[in-house]
Each structure stands twice: as structure tokens, then as C-alpha cells.
Amino acid sequence: MQTFISFLKTKNHNLYEAIDLILWKDWAPIGVNNIVPRDEYQIYTPTIFELKNTGSDKETIAQTLHEIEIATLGVVGNIEYCRQVANKIINLKF
């Protein structure tokens, strides 16, 4: 019988993995998925996971992704696209 704690761990792990995959496949702000290691954006997964897990809204997640694009990755960024990605994250259900 699965305990509640193990259920939460599995749920959180699945959510974490789903967010990580969205960042890799959908966000990918520098567009290098086909030439860099799979872990290129994994450094940002904990931040976005925490936002999702604590109930942050789409705009907060989008703004965070956009700030990462500009401040950390040094790209122009696209807030509207970040909103689309944030919407996918907000709609994740586990």
C-alpha cells in the first residue's frame, strides 16, 4: 500500500519531470536542443517547479522565464511566448 508521503513524492517527481521537459522542448530560448546536452535548461527547473508548486500564477511564471532569458541567457526574450510556456506549466495536473 502506497503511503501518503510516497504518493506526494511521486506526484512531485512527476511534476518536476514534466516541467523539465516543457523547458527543454517548448521554452528552449536559445534554440540549441539539437546540439547541446539534454541538461541545458535543467538549472532553471527547480525555480519554475517551486513557483508552480506554491501556486504562482501564469504571469509570475512567464515573467520569471522572461527574466531568465534576458538576464541569464542574454537573449532578447519573448514575453508572449513565455506566457504560452507558462500556460502549459500552469495546466499540468498530477
Automatic annotation (TrEMBL):
It comes from the Bacteria. This is Uncharacterized protein. It comes from Sphingobacterium kitahiroshimense. InterPro entries: Apc36109-like_dom_sf (IPR023162).
